User: Fold this.
Amino acid sequence: MSLFDADAYDPDDMMVHPRHQAMQPVLAQLIQQLRECDTVEAGVEFQRDLLERLLEVEKDRAGFKRAAKRMRSGKGPHPEAPEPQSGRDLADATTWRFEQDVCDRLARQLRSVGDALAWRVFGFHRPFILALCRNQSPGLMHGKAGLQAERERVERAFKEDGAFALLHDLTNCLRIGDITVWDGVHPPRTEEIKTNPNNTKSAQLRRINQARAAVLDGGPLPGDNASELLYDLNLPLRTHLDMLRKALERAANEGVYATDVPGSRALFVIDQYGCSQQGLSSKTFNERLQQTVDAALLRAGIAAGREDHNIHVTSLDSTARDPLRVPWANYPLQPVACARLIGDYAVATVETSGPLLTRLLQVAGLDARWGRPPGKADLQQGEVIMEIHQQEKLRTVALPGGLTMTPGWTLQMRRSELDRYLMELLRPGSWIAGIKHVLVARQAGQPWPHYRNEHEIWV
Assistant:
């Protein structure tokens, strides 16, 4: 159940739950610990700590789920059920479901730190993530039949070979294979671990090999569409993430902060701790939010036609949901700020105007056309939001009847690319240069572009 789809409780109930609040310092400590890992041994120890915390949360989740099921059937909670901490009526089945939902969110928060570990050990080289994320989300680790075999393989890699092996189920972004091993000599090797070697699935091995070939040899990405390929832009990534850092710092003190960002964007940040520190009433908060957001939209030039043409992305309840997003723990922010974003105690939203964004590209010499109809509908996964056309002006092809044709290319932009421009706050010049690079290359199929220097951006 999503935090903001809940029928049985107010979203604020989640934020004041003792378990949820207690996770904040844990996340900050884990992020700091991860950033200090500089040896294989430190990485192994960190992974053990993170795994134990996740298994503990998932064990409680399973207990609450079982209790809720028993309550719905007219029975009482089982004797081993974990103790609810919400202060709600223990005789109400929704209390136990609420506790389960809290644990669901805490498990996602811990997995987001696992995602940060994955990005770090892959050297922040996005192609590995793009290739290995292309499966369904992994299930729970608690109670998984093959977990013991995977843990034994991880420990054996370290003790026998001095290698680091990452458990994929500790993350949300690695969905193909069970572990990846770094031996310090060869490229990382993804493995499928089975308690019975004869049960190894050929389909899973094929996807592992596809992912490896996509990253190392330029082959198609895993899946049924052989036209999906990684594309090296051979360009440096440039961002405005310093503006996000400033916005979070201001919001931590003021409660609400909004600013315009170059490239027809506005950034808004709300910090619950900052709002509490300011003593903002609900009325005062809403007034301040409206004023600061309106001013930022005006400065960004995207206030007019907001209801019909503006789109946005947000950090709200997004942690460990989209494997394509860089995890918050890797953003160049203080660990406490990362933890607040992960736990939704701080929420960042970036908004733009589709038509104005199109004009930004047109000024740069690109024939861009906005593809979304007016309205408030949320962006959908895989949705084409913009098309960019390019014709070969120096070449024409003769057709029957005295007609001529000018060959051309069309680049379709989907939600994930716009999400990246907004949430990662790419500099407009860097973003536009990347689009032009893809157009000039005229790579057939569906390119998944990536920049060269992401190890300089993320931490």
Notes: The radius of gyration is 24 Å. The mean pLDDT is 92.
